[in-house]
Write a structure and sequence with these properties.
There is one protein chain. The protein has about 325 residues and is α/β, with parallel strands linked by helices. It has two domains: about 220 residues, 3-Layer(aba) Sandwich (Rossmann fold); about 60 residues. The longest helix has 15 residues.
């Protein structure tokens, strides 16, 4: 029987916190406890070699779930198996086979160079000389480590630190790597370099990525799991999100957005969005798009830079999905 590399069944996690209303309550050893449920009846499987995006709004339970899968936290109830083991009870066994990278948190030794930390990792994980040399060479080439690999970590930029962290995380060839917002705060070029690196090793290692950047999900992941208030509200291949929302948007880009634009053109019959110098109109259900474009040109001819019709992006499709799920609770994704 094939065992999933991650297998979670009816997982629950609760935290008990003190209900302290005044400063005096902080001095009391006994106070009323409040139960907060972070993860509720969660079940899913991840197979060997999958690249899965785990997304959701702040407080959805993503980080708590990762902490349970890495053995930092024990579940309140339910079953969790990572590499066939209980990650909390068998943490020492699993830690030799898994790796983590947390955005803007450094695991490398702060006052020494990345290279010196890599030698430490080599000894800790019994990496032979040949593999160590080959991996350092490969990571240096694809991530551009050579310019800073011998500089103290404390002197590196955020982008350089993240590249060094990724190299260290993959150095001992883990079976699973957990990436918690690895591109947060990075510039475009550094971010692309990291995503290219992750795509180059994709399939050889199981990757679980949490991020608020939908572009990272689209570029890297095969599958997306969406969490909300500790529950899974969607689990499918990434492309399914876009296919569900096969929408067309008419984008009217202005040289300068006309004042009182809504009073000059009747947008009441259309779903529209005004941002900076652009008006986006949902034209998915409009048969005669050319008539609408003609009307817009007649109204704003001198002010228009150009007009285009395009399918909505994965990012926008995902926002549509999340807004539909959250609208009943009066919450929306901006």
């Amino acid at each position: 029987m094939v065992i999933s590399i991650i297998d979670i069944k009816n997982l629950n996690k609760e935290f008990h916190i003190n209900e302290r209303k005044t400063f005096k309550d902080y001095l009391r050893f006994k106070s009323k406890k409040k139960i907060i449920k972070i993860i509720s009846s969660l079940s899913f499987k991840i197979e060997d070699g999958e690249t899965v995006g785990l997304i959701g709004l702040n407080g959805a339970g993503k980080s708590t779930l990762i902490k349970m899968m890495t053995g930092i936290l024990a579940p309140t109830s339910g079953e969790i198996r990572v590499l066939g083991n209980d990650p909390f009870k068998d943490r020492l066994i699993n830690n030799r086979k898994i790796s983590t990278v947390f955005g803007q948190r450094c695991k490398l030794r702060w006052d020494v160079s990345p290279m010196e930390s890599y030698y430490l990792i080599k000894d800790m994980y019994d990496i032979n000389d040949k593999d160590f040399k080959n991996r350092i060479s490969y990571f240096s080439e694809i991530l551009g480590l050579s310019t800073f690999i011998n500089n103290p970590v404390r002197t590196l930029s955020l982008g350089q630190k993240m590249k060094a962290e990724l190299a260290g995380a993959f150095l001992y060839d883990p079976e699973i790597i957990f990436l918690d917002e690895p591109t947060i705060g990075l510039d475009v070029l550094t971010k692309d370099s990291i995503l290219n690196f992750l795509n180059s090793i994709k399939g050889t290692t199981t990757i679980l990525l949490t991020t608020h950047d939908f572009d990272d999900i689209e570029k890297l992941c095969d599958r997306v799991i969406i969490l909300h208030e500790g529950r899974i509200i969607h689990d499918s291949p990434v492309n399914d999100i876009s296919s569900i929302y096969n929408l067309e948007m008419l984008e009217v880009i202005f040289k300068d957005l006309p004042e009182n634009i809504e009073s000059k053109f009747d947008f009441k019959n259309y779903k529209f969005d005004i941002k900076k110098n652009m008006v986006k109109i949902d034209v998915s259900s409009i048969n005669n798009k050319s008539e609408l474009i003609k009307k817009i040109y007649e109204t704003f001819n001198k002010d228009i830079d150009f007009v285009r019709v395009s399918k909505i992006s994965f990012k926008d499709a995902l926002k549509y999905f999340l807004n539909e799920q959250l609208s009943a609770k009066g919450k929306y994704v901006s």
